[in-house]
Design goal:
Layout (H helix, E strand, L loop, with lengths): L3 E3 L4 H9 L4 E3 L13 H19 L5 E11 L2 E2 L6 H11 L3 E12 L2 E12 L5 H11 L8 E6 L4 E10 L2 H7 L7 H9 L5 E9 L8 H15 L4 E4 L7 H5 L20
Parallel strand pairs: 1-2, 1-3, 9-10
Antiparallel strand pairs: 3-4, 3-5, 5-6, 7-8, 8-9
């Protein structure tokens, strides 16, 4: 069988090829992703083609190149990241209780021949109240960096089925501030939030129960990892996780990981 090159940094696309027991190398494309299409299915196919053709030019021509791209759309419109608090509330309200589409385009180049196709998945989001929307926005939006946040929404109803929130690591900033915001501790935190960090904190990830173990986490990381690389991040640290939660632990199997902190809670009967 021909040597395969995956033109993507997505851990889940890597996982799919590994589950198929295929031998391959990963060579992410750095081509500029500019599309001339507007329909979501055409956009993902064109972007997948751009990635595959970029790596094909750089690689040995006897390899099989596989490129892919994914977008989320609602009522035919591709959904991007919210630009501010008002846009975040608009998007969450629009998606609440609705169904949207997730489009994945694939481009395969072999022996100079190109085959491009796409798959569409419909996703339905639970209805959330205005109070819940306001709670999340007021709690997280003020300190968010929108480039480090992503949403997975269901296109037909714009319902959010998954989200990922990350921030630059604030540990050094808190040390410099000595645990105090005033009088000048906030300056260190502000600088850290706007920095190009080496360490990213994975603050909060959520996926609707009916969409868990169906690749939504892969879509989240597929969106965020290129951003982390672009700003120069080298490491990411997760929030506390139960050691017995095999589903959560399994998502890190495709990364170089290190278990370097443990927490224990004890009950003393008096």
């Amino acid at each position: 069988m021909k040597h395969i090159i995956l033109a993507s940094a997505s851990p889940r696309r890597k996982e799919i090829l590994e589950l198929a027991d295929l031998k391959f190398d990963v060579m992410p494309s750095d081509a500029q992703e500019i599309t001339t299409k507007t329909a979501p299915n055409e956009v993902v196919m064109e972007l997948a083609s751009i990635k595959a053709k970029d790596i094909y030019k750089k690689s040995e021509k006897q390899s099989m190149i596989v490129g892919a791209d994914t977008v989320v759309a609602y009522q035919g419109q591709i959904l991007g990241k919210p630009t501010d608090e008002a846009d975040a509330k608009r998007m969450l309200t629009m998606l609440s209780g609705q169904t949207h589409e997730v489009y994945t385009g694939v481009c395969v180049i072999e022996d100079g021949k190109t085959k491009t196709f796409y798959e569409e998945t419909k996703v339905t989001f639970y209805e959330i109240s205005d109070e819940q929307i306001d709670y999340y926005i007021n709690m997280y939006i003020p300190m968010l960096r929108y480039d480090l946040v992503t949403l997975i929404v269901r296109e037909e109803d714009n319902a959010v089925v998954g989200f990922g929130i990350s921030l630059p690591n604030l540990s050094r900033a808190l040390q410099k501030a000595r645990g105090h915001m005033l009088p000048f501790g906030w300056i260190h935190l502000l600088k850290a939030l706007k920095s190009k960090p080496k360490v990213i904190d994975l603050y909060l990830t959520g996926v609707l129960p009916e969409y868990q173990s169906k690749g939504v986490n892969a879509l989240l990381f597929n969106d965020l990892i290129p951003v982390y690389k672009r700003i120069g991040a080298v490491y990411a640290e997760s929030n506390p996780e139960l050691e017995t939660n095999s589903a959560v632990q399994a998502q890190w199997d495709y990364f170089k990981r290190e278990h370097h902190k443990s927490r224990r809670a004890y009950i003393k009967k008096l």
